[in-house]
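SAMPLE LOG
Freezer: B-3
Tube label: C17
Construct: single chain, 174 aa
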Amino acid sequence: MTDTHRTSPGRTSSGGTGGGGLRARAREHALLPLRIFLGVTFIYAGLDKLTDSQFMANSGIGSIGDLMRGVRNTSAVPWLVDLALENPVGFGYAIALGELAVGIGALIGLLTRIAALGGALISLSLWLTVSWRTEPYYYGNDLVYLMAWLPLVLAGAATLSADALLAARRRRAV
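STRUCTURE (predicted):
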């Protein structure tokens, strides 16, 4: 028997409904683990920065200011580091709040494509500045996060998300 063998009207031997069954459900939810991982990770990263008084400082061990000064000459985009150095603490808050917003959006699936684009842009900026000189390149996690956000930019959150609930509500209203 194949997984499409009919055992009763509308049912297959694999226990799913006609049209793919278990495989179709797996495809439907394939991005959910990625969305949860990225959402939780970015929420944690944002909260970690916001609650770390050493990070949110112009200078000192572990400060955003010293981090930016330390990567200035090895960055792929030194002008971006110079921009951050105009107000390192403000830049630190912008990154932290951005990570928090992106993480919440991804986790609950609200404006998922926009949140994922924000996550991709944060990851891209960190890759081009902070982790640009990491060798070999695959040791740098910012590039991996950038690539991880791209499927969500393209596909959004079709299931188990606020976006899906809002789309269903719009369809019912029509």
